[in-house]
Amino acid sequence: MVQHPTIIEIIETILGKDMTLGGFSAHILNPGATNMGVHVDYPYWTMKPPFPTYPIMEVQVIWMVEDFTEENGAPLFTPGSQKLCSPPDLVHFSKTAEKVTGKAGSVVVSHGLCWHDTSVNATEKPRVSILGNYGPKFVRPLEDPLHDVRQEVLERATPKLKQLLGYQFKSDLFKDIQRIRLQEWNR
Ligand SMILES: O=C(O)CCC(=O)C(=O)O
């Protein structure tokens, strides 16, 4: 899922070809779950505003594991708020946010600076999403995507998957890359 070709094409257009995966997780809104709180995504919430317009620091992908409806906690976004480069304004958000509904298998691709929240799950069933966070390689990922990856998975991983997992930053390899770079620069 993390290397779905259409999604990768969109993200690479925004972040550049050498982006990496900052996190990949399931998000479950159980029946009765209230909204998570309006936010911008990592790493913007660690930074002091005004946030930079460029380079773009994060793109979030929300996979709808089931239908997202008006009632089951579909996310809310304020269109265009990424251009404000500011933390969310709750009053502005409450007046402008729009619920994003869709069929299972649909994907929301959002700029990390776009103000968003989840809504209330007023149904009897959990609402599940899978979240992919992609960022430029110079942003320290919140999770270590390589942590749980078994060796045999790495051995059959595509170059793109290795790149997404930050394989080049594995300490022993990283040293080799740094050494080669240094040689190239000194040539
Ligand atoms: O699960 C969702 O609908 C969105 C969650 C989200 O936006 C987040 O965790 O940043």
Give a short overview.
This protein is of the alpha+beta class and 187 residues long. The protein is 24% helix and 20% strand.
* Widest sheet: strand ordering: 1-7-2-5
**CATH fold name of the largest domain, please?**
Jelly Rolls
**How is the main sheet built?**
4 strands, antiparallel
Mean pLDDT across every amino acid position:
93
- How many distinct helices? 5
The CATH superfamily name of the largest domain is q2cbj1_9rhob like domain
Low-confidence stretches: none
CATH class of the largest domain: Mainly Beta
Write the element-wise H/E pattern from the N-terminal end onward. HEEEHEEEEHHH
Tally of distinct domains: 2
> Total strand count, please?
7
* Structural class by secondary-structure content: alpha+beta
Strand content: 15-25%
Oligomer: single chain
The share of residues in helices is 10-25%
Which ligands occur here? Answer: 2-oxoglutaric acid
From the spread of the alpha carbons, the general shape counts as globular
End-to-end separation: 41 Å
Query: Rg, please?
Result: 18 Å
> Which architecture name of the largest domain does CATH use?
Sandwich
Could you walk me through the main structural features you see in this protein, from its secondary elements to its overall organization?
It is built from five helices and seven strands; from the N terminus they run H-E-E-E-H-E-E-E-E-H-H-H. The chain has 187 residues and is α+β, with helices and mostly antiparallel strands. The chain folds into two domains: 5-143, Sandwich (Jelly Rolls), CATH 2.60.120; 146-187, no CATH class. The strands form two sheets. It has a four-stranded antiparallel beta sheet, with helices on one face. Strands 4-3-6 form a three-stranded antiparallel beta sheet, with no helix packed on it. The structure holds 2-oxoglutaric acid. 2-oxoglutaric acid (AKG) is lined by residues 27, 41, 62, 75, 116, 118, 129, 131.
